[in-house]
């Protein structure tokens, strides 16, 4: 299994290296969504908090986010956000984990569980936008997170929407209190072509107020009418999340 993981990391890093040679200053985000079996939340939390996250931290990955859906959905879904310095760093870390004896030891109890902890998990790789090339860790306290997925009509539509963010929309977000944790274009994963981003608020009241301010902002009114950005988004998915105790975000 170790050699399979090493080979996979080398293949992934190698196949994407050329495409991202010009954007190595942007982080790569791995976003995992676990759909848990009933009663398994404690097991996955133990594994993430005692084995995977410490191993990632030892191997140079910091600020790993762990969230669950607000409203306590059943079966629960856990969202894990892992930021890497680059696509080559993603491959390096995967290889390092396969050789990490401490990680292997810390994972033993989890790996020996007699029943499945999750049905499956989906994973996406995202490239950070030029307008926000690295993850922003928000301050502590009570927070809610809003994950938004914008599916596009085509690859060109998503490319134009990313450009729209980079050329002004991110700045309007800043002006209106839509504080971003990350913006990323999905380079591998489900629901492509799409982009994803995460915002953070103190509560839903602040969230609703700031979105209203964004919609009413004159810069957005002008930008939204620009024909070069027309017909970019075919579907918007939003998920409200709350950080788990083990989250570093």
User: Total strand count, please?
Assistant: 8
Shape: globular
Structural class: alpha+beta
Order of strands in the sheet with most strands: 1-3-2-8-5-7-6-4
What value does the Rg take, in angstroms? 19 Å
> Strand portion, in percent?
25-35%
CATH architecture: 2-Layer Sandwich
Oligomerization: single chain
Question: How far from one another are the termini?
Answer: 31 Å
What features would you describe in this structure?
The protein has 249 residues and is α+β, with helices and mostly antiparallel strands. It has a single domain, classed as 2-Layer Sandwich (Alpha-Beta Plaits), CATH 3.30.70. Helices cover 39% and strands 29% of the residues. The protein has eight helices and eight strands; from the N terminus they run αβαββαααββαββααβ. The chain has helices at residues 2-17, 41-58, 87-98, 101-106, 108-111, 155-175, 204-216, 218-223, and strands at residues 28-36, 65-69, 77-84, 118-128, 144-152, 179-188, 194-201, 233-243. It has an eight-stranded antiparallel beta barrel.
Chain-wise SSE layout:
Elements lengths: L1 H16 L10 E9 L4 H18 L6 E5 L7 E8 L2 H12 L2 H6 L1 H4 L6 E11 L15 E9 L2 H21 L3 E10 L5 E8 L2 H13 L1 H6 L9 E11 L6
Antiparallel strand pairs: 1-3, 1-4, 2-3, 2-8, 4-6, 5-7, 5-8, 6-7
Features:
alpha+beta; 249 residues; Alpha-Beta Plaits; eight-stranded antiparallel β-barrel; 29% strand; disordered N terminus; single chain; 39% helix; 8 helices
């Amino acid at each position: 299994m170790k050699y399979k993981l090493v080979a996979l990391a080398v293949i992934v890093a190698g196949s994407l290296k050329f495409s991202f040679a010009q954007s190595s200053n942007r982080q790569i985000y791995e976003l995992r969504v676990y759909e848990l079996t009933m009663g398994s939340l404690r097991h996955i939390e133990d594994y993430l908090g005692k084995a995977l996250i410490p191993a990632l931290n030892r191997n140079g990955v910091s600020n790993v986010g762990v969230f669950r859906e607000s409203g306590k959905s059943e079966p629960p879904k856990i969202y894990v956000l892992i930021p890497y310095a680059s696509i080559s760093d993603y491959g390096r870390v995967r290889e390092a984990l396969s050789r990490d004896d401490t990680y292997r030891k810390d994972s033993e109890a989890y790996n020996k569980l007699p029943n499945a902890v999750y049905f499956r998990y989906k994973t996406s790789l995202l490239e950070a936008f030029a307008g926000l090339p690295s993850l922003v860790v928000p301050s502590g306290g009570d927070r809610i997170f809003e994950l938004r997925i914008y599916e596009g009509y085509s690859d060109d539509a998503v490319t134009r929407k990313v450009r729209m963010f980079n050329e002004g929309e991110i700045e309007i977000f800043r002006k209106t209190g839509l504080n971003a944790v990350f913006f990323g274009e999905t380079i591998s994963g489900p629901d492509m072509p799409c982009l994803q981003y995460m915002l953070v608020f103190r509560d839903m009241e602040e969230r609703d107020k700031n979105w209203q301010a964004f919609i009413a902002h004159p810069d957005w009114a002008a930008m939204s009418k620009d024909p070069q950005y027309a017909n970019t988004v075919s579907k918007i998915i939003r998920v409200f999340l709350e950080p788990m105790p083990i989250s570093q975000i």
